[in-house]
Amino acid sequence: MPWANGQGTTLELVVHPRGATTASMEWRISVATVAEPGPFSSLPGVDRVLLMLDDIDAVLSVDGTTVAVRQFDQVAFSGDSEVALTTVSAPARDLNLMTRRGLWGGRMTRVDLGAIGPRTGADHTWLLVVSGAADITDHDGTWTLGELDLARLPADAAVRGSGVGVVLEIARDQ
Fold first, then answer.
1. Which one is predicted more confidently, 119 or 83?
2. Sign of the CA dihedral 143, 147, 152, 158?
3. CA 116/CA 95 separation, integer angstroms
4. 30 Cβ partners below 8 Å, 6+ apart?
5. What span, in angstroms and rounded, lies between the C-alpha atoms of 28 and 69?
6. 77 with 51: CB under 8 angstroms?
7. Mind giving me the DSSP string for 112-135?
């Protein structure tokens, strides 16, 4: 899907509600490829968390503040903010969690796929495999995730695997 500013594309992994546009979504998980410096799209009313998936050096400017970003670093910012990628050492992928302010909040946690513990009381919990593989088992059976596969993670699911993943937790604002 094209960026709102028209300067790139993103792979939308899941959006709520299903089929929502950037303007109508309540939350979204996506992976974007950044290859050169440039501005981020303005998304008023949306809170954003970016996590760098690849081992590169990048620098963001968030409302004039310089933020260095390396692999698995996270940067949280308002979609109302003026954000630009000012430096990137090589093309890279970043994971994005966007939530509609006042409706939802979210967070991301880098995890070892062999050591995923109990989940919190989030309304929606997802697992993205960054490298390696993971088997998820719950009352419906077992399924396997490979690199860049995303799956909803039921509270009663057992996860076994090796490699690195990211757990994304999305909860309705109180």
1. 83
2. positive
3. 19
4. 1, 10, 11, 12, 13, 95, 96, 98
5. 22
6. no
7. ETT------S-SEEEEEEEEEEEE
* Domains, in order of start, for the chain: 10-100 (2.60.120.10), 104-172 (2.60.120.10)
pLDDT at site 122? 85
pLDDT in tens, 106-162: 999 999 998 887 676 789 999 999 999 999 998 889 999 999 999 999 888 889 999
Output the six-digit token pair for 144: 């396997």
Give per-residue burial for 26-41: e unless 16+ CB within 10 Å, then b. Answer: bbbbbbbebeeeeebb
Vertex 169: Cα angle to 95 and 88 (nearest 5): 20
Instruction: Return the pLDDT at 118.
Output: 67
Q: What is the mean pLDDT of residues 87-101?
A: 94
pLDDT above 90: residue 12: yes
Query: Rounded to whole angstroms, how far apart are CA atoms 133 and 31?
Result: 18
Cα–Cα dist 55/65, whole Å: 22
Pairing, β 124-138 against β 150-152: antiparallel
* Torsion sign over Cα 120, 101, 36, 59: negative
Q: How far is CA 122 from CA 45, 109, 118, in A?
A: 21, 13, 11
CA end-to-end distance (rounded Å), the chain: 31
